[in-house]
Structure formats: C-alpha cells, structure tokens
TrEMBL record, chain A:
Protein name (database record): (2Fe-2S)-binding protein
Domain 2Fe-2S ferredoxin-type per the UniProt entry, residue ranges: 2-78
UniProt organism field: Pseudoroseicyclus tamaricis
Alphabetically ordered keywords of this record: 2Fe-2S, Iron, Iron-sulfur, Metal-binding, Oxidoreductase
Gene Ontology molecular functions: 2 iron, 2 sulfur cluster binding; metal ion binding; oxidoreductase activity
InterPro entries per UniProt: 2Fe-2S-bd, 2Fe-2S-bd_dom_sf, 2Fe-2S_ferredoxin-like_sf, 2Fe-2S_ferredoxin-type, Beta-grasp_dom_sf, Diverse_Oxidoreductases
Keyword Metal-binding recorded: yes
A Pfam entry, by short name: Fer2
UniProtKB/TrEMBL annotation, chain B:
Transmembrane recorded as keyword: no
Protein name: Carbon monoxide dehydrogenase
Domain of life: Bacteria
SUPFAM superfamilies the UniProt entry points to: CO dehydrogenase flavoprotein C-terminal domain-like, FAD-binding/transporter-associated domain-like
C-alpha cells in the first residue's frame, strides 16, 4: 500500500493507505480524529468539512493520496492547544448555534474559512457560504447569528437567546 | 467503494499515456466521480489524477476571448474571471457550495455534462470552443445529451475558450437539496447577436434556446419575449418539479436575466 505524507493540525503524519481511502477515513480511522463527521454518502451534507491549505474541502470527497503534501486542519485543530475555544467556537456556544451538534464541526470549519476570506460577511453572504453545510436541528437561524457575532457584528433578530 | 490504483502524473503527456491503457479513467476534483465511486457506480482499475499537472491550470485572456484551462477549479475561476468576464465568474461562484468550488474543475464539469451543470450553459450561449487533448470542438457539437459528449476514450478536456460578451447574466433557480439548477438560463449579449442557453431543465442536458436568441437579437428587452415559452416536450419531470414547472421557471429565469442586462 502507498504512503501518504501530509500535515494534520500542524503535525507531519505519514500513513499507509489504499488508493480508494478517503481523507475522512484516514483522519477518523487512521489518526483517531473523529471530530470530522460523516453524515451522508453523497458529498452533500458538509459534516466532514476540513481545511486543505486553508480552503474548505469535504473530506469524504477527496482521496487521502490527493492530499499528499498539503496542510489539513480538522475541528481538533481549531481550538488553542490549551483548549481555549476559537472565536467561532465560542460564538456557536454563546448564541446556541447547535442542538445535537452533529453538523457543528463542519459548520465551525466552514465558518473559519469564510471569516479568513471575508472578515465581515453580510447575512446573505453567510447563508450563501454555508449552503454546503446541512443542519437538521437548528433551522440555521442561530448559526447565522453565531457567525455574525464571531465576525464582530450585531447578530440579527431578537436578543432573547443571547448568552447570559 | 471498490479499490483502485491512483496515479498522479505531473505532465499532460504522461497522463495521456496512462489514460491510453485499459481500465484507466481521469480524476479531476472528484466532486462527481468520488460520490459515484462511493455508490459503486464505477469500477476503474486505475484513476489518473489531473490535479498535479501545472500546464492544465490557469486563466488567460486571448484577444476577445477568455481561455480557461481544464484543471482550473471553480474557485480559481471566480477570482480569475472576475474582471474579464464577470458573468462567468458569477456562475462559477454559485456552483454547488464553497467546498465543491475548492476542488471541482471546469474540465471535469464539461466532460461530465450533467444535465443540470452550469458551465455547459455558458459555453453554449457564448459559442465557446472546447479544447481536448486531440482537437478543438465547438460547444454546439460537444454536448451530445445526458452525460454524453464528443469525447472519445482516453481523450480529455484541456480547456475551454469563451468569447467574452459585452454583458451576460446567469439566473439559476436552485434545487436546494443538491444545489444544482432546477432550471437556469445564461444570456450572453454580443455586438451583433445574443446567445441564450438553458440548463437543468432538459432530459438531453443544456441546450440553446434559439427562439429566445432570435427575439433578443432583434430587440433586447423583456417585452420582446412576450408570449415566448419553452415547450414541455423532453423536459425533466421528477420529484423536484414537473416539466410544466421547469418550462415556467426557465421562462422566469430568462426574463430575469434579460431584465438584469437591458
Ligand atoms: C453537492 C454538490 C453540488 C454541486 N452543484 C453543482 C452545480 O450547481 N452546478 C454544477 O455545474 N456542478 C455542480 N456540482 C458538480 C461539480 O461542479 C463537479 O465539480 C463537476 O461536475 C465535476 O468536476 P470535477 O473536477 O469534480 O470532476 P470529477 O468528479 O473528478 O470527474 C467527473 C467525470 O469527468 C471525468 N473527467 C474529469 N476530468 C476530466 C477531463 N479534464 N477530461 C475528460 N474527462 C474528465 C472523470 O473521469 C469523471 O467521469 C456539484 C457537486 C456536488 C458534490
Ligand atoms: S459526509 Fe462528507 S459531505 Fe456528507
Ligand atoms: S445541530 Fe443537529 S444537525 Fe445541526
């Protein structure tokens, strides 16, 4: 079996994989990074979102071997090493941007990519960007509010659910 | 997913040599191919990745046309075409979602010819030329129906040259579960002609709407489209919408595009 060498959350790793091994399977089974979720068979739900060289990629739609030499960031690499949540993660917590949490790693990773490209997105831009991340619980409203808060903007709508 | 070997050539010549061998298929961004492999809809012995070939990447203006190399991703096109052909950049920026745009390529999209793919509409409306590893084919002669193109075995798309219109607009009515078009219309306005193409609506894939082209070439206005509608014959009818609905939506998208440009 061929080897693949890449950087995952800042650490160089080499793994033996098959031609067909998806990046998501290498991350979850090979490296035990189970924060990257798998929610579909069709590359539509975005639960498996990771950053590859800073850009959002569905880890279920790229072969591990195709990620050779890249820098991959998973949800495990988003918080600070001491566990302090990133601004985006903190905003998801403060604004109740999650219920069951299944979609949340993908949402946080996608949002991280959005804010690095567009630090103050409009509500329409946020909704357009997150089209590839499905959430079956929240109705998206609090997710959008969390992204607005994470980008230093006033969250839309009422303040009823704001953190106390 | 069945196992296969992955080859990662770095030159076009090497890739073509590999693809000439039995059981080898090209892999670009994988945004269509990987899900179909996961569904066991294909069983290649070897995939030849085109993603590590520098000569297949890039965007350049060639006279009055924009040349996009086959391995250019949708995301690269959004930025690279923004100043030169904003209508195409806008189309690319609405393909799927950001992750699909990070990986998916124009070559893969054009070669796949999904009946709801976006680029074929722009290619047909502008009168683009598809460049392959062997020849150049006019868009009109390249797209041959549902997932069918003029490509032969082992032949790959190396680029697309789009004549740059004076103005253009792409109106896409999305099917929100897939983000593909339920019906979408690309309108390209040139000095002496207008190109109109529809995607997402027909069982035969994207097609030129010639009656709309004629009416708009005569008089570029929404009023000129009075009474014009798409025949339901051959339109897709599925759980997302009937043929009548798609015909109607294509008409709405056409009028919106023209209104945006008139
Ligand atoms: C959730 C989702 C939403 C999407 N929404 C849209 C949308 O709104 N509009 C749209 O247009 N598309 C959409 N797509 C499809 C996307 O644009 C794909 O990227 C594209 O269709 C295929 O390009 P690829 O580079 O990923 O090709 P691949 O998936 O790698 O390959 C597709 C096929 O083409 C062949 N192939 C690849 N490259 C070449 C080449 N250069 N020459 C010849 N054959 C080649 C492969 O062997 C394969 O059969 C969506 C995809 C997903 C997963
Ligand atoms: S698991 Fe990757 S998109 Fe659903
Ligand atoms: S919080 Fe349950 S899927 Fe989003």
């Amino acid at each position: 079996m061929p080897d693949v060498t890449l950087s995952v959350n800042g650490q160089d790793v080499t793994q033996q994989v098959e031609g067909r091994t998806l990046l998501v399977d290498m991350l979850r089974r090979g490296l035990g990074l189970t924060g990257t979720h798998v929610g579909c068979d069709t590359s539509q739900c975005g639960a498996c979102m990771v950053l590859v060289d800073g850009a959002p990629v569905k880890a279920c739609s790229i072969l591990a071997l195709e990620a050779e030499g890249t820098e991959v960031t998973t949800i495990e690499g988003i918080a600070a090493p001491d566990g302090t949540l990133s601004t985006v993660q903190q905003a998801f917590q403060d604004y109740h941007g999650l219920q069951c949490g299944f979609c949340t790693p993908g949402m946080v990773v996608s949002t991280t990519a959005l804010l690095s490209e567009n630090p103050k997105p409009s509500e329409a831009e946020i909704r357009h960007w997150l089209e590839g991340n499905f959430c079956r619980c929240t109705g998206y409203h609090n997710i959008v509010r969390a992204v607005q808060a994470a980008s230093g903007q006033e969250p839309a709508g009422t303040k009823a659910v704001e953190a106390n | 997913m069945y196992d296969f070997e992955l080859a990662r050539p770095t030159t076009l010549a090497e890739a073509l040599e590999m693809l000439a061998e039995e059981g080898s298929d090209p892999l670009s961004g994988g945004q269509t191919l990987i899900p179909s492999l996961r569904a066991r809809l294909a069983m290649p012995e070897r995939l030849v990745s085109l993603m590590h070939i520098d000569e297949l990447k890039g965007i350049e203006q060639r006279g009055d046309a924009l040349h996009v190399k086959g391995g250019t991703t949708h995301a690269q096109l959004v930025h690279g075409a923004y100043d030169i052909f904003p209508g195409l950049a806008s189309l690319a920026g609405r393909i799927g979602d950001p992750a699909v745009r990070t990986r998916g390529t124009i070559g893969g999209s054009v070669a796949n010819n999904d009946p709801a793919a976006c680029y074929p509409a722009a290619a047909l409306a502008t009168g683009a030329t598809i460049h392959t590893s062997q020849r150049e084919v006019a868009a009109d002669d390249f797209f041959l129906g549902l997932f069918e193109t003029a490509l032969e075995e082992g032949e790959i798309v190396t680029g697309v040259t789009f004549p740059i219109p004076q103005a253009s607009a792409y109106e896409k009515f999305i099917q929100p579960a897939s983000h593909f078009a339920l019906a979408a219309v690309f309108v390209a306005r040139f000095d002496t002609r207008v190109g109109v193409a529809v995607t997402g609506a027909s069982e035969d894939g994207a097609f030129r709407w010639k009656e709309a082209e004629a009416a708009l070439t005569e008089d570029f206005s929404v009023a000129a489209l009075e009474g014009l509608s798409l025949p339901e014959q051959g339109l897709i009818a599925d759980v997302h919408g009937g043929a009548d609905y798609r015909a109607r939506m294509a008409g709405v998208m056409l009028r919106r595009a023209v209104a945006a440009l008139a």
